[in-house]
Design a protein that fits this description.
2 copies of one chain form a homodimer. Chain A has 3 helices and 4 strands, in the order E-H-E-E-H-H-E. In chain A, a hairpin with a 4-residue loop joins strand 2 and strand 3. The longest helix of chain A has 14 residues, at 71-84. By secondary structure, chain A is an alpha+beta fold. The first copy, chain A, has a domain at 14-49 and 62-95. Chain A has a 4-stranded antiparallel sheet. The relative contact order of chain A is 0.32. The first copy, chain A, starts with a strand and ends with a strand.
């Protein structure tokens, strides 16, 4: 991934109690996203307090818009608001620099 | 936070074993970052597998550069490479859109 490319920063707070299929849906969404044009990758972490961050990477804004409107993904978004999330925030950001350390 | 503003996406994989003061240093870095000019906020999540994501938010690139060069932060970066991280990646990204859901 050589900049510039795009990141979707999704920060969320999960509801407590029954998962209502959350894990299965999350895995299915990752699989579907990876099949979308312009998909570059995804990283996710969720702590024990229910606060989570998922960052997905995309070639451009058009790829993000297409994924946002994908039919199964729209269904997951609705289900997320109804069942899984207390709150979330989505940020669309243009990655300008990218550097790494490896042991 | 009204876009545009900047995000630093820090994804990392922690070493196993002794924390060697990792938690205390992380808390101290959050405290120091919050005192920097142009700081807007920070969010972090780390899963049980050691994979973590921290996103800090800044007014502009100059604020990020100043924080990167802050003396105590430089010391923490060096300590992180020597002890705490197997690998990490830093991405500097310009947030262009931002929307939220709240239950």
């Amino acid at each position: 991934m050589e900049p510039p490319y795009y990141a979707v920063i999704f920060t969320s707070s999960r509801t407590e109690g029954d998962d209502l299929g959350y894990g299965a849906m999350a895995a299915e969404m990752e699989r579907l996203a990876a099949a979308q044009p312009g998909y570059l990758g995804i990283e996710a972490a969720r702590g024990g307090d229910g606060a989570g961050i998922t960052v997905s990477y995309w070639r451009d804004v058009d790829a993000i818009t297409a994924w946002k409107r994908q039919v199964d993904h729209l269904d997951a978004q609705r289900h997320g608001r109804e069942h899984w999330y207390v709150r979330y925030r989505v940020r669309i950001a243009r990655v300008e620099r990218d550097y790494a350390f490896e042991r």
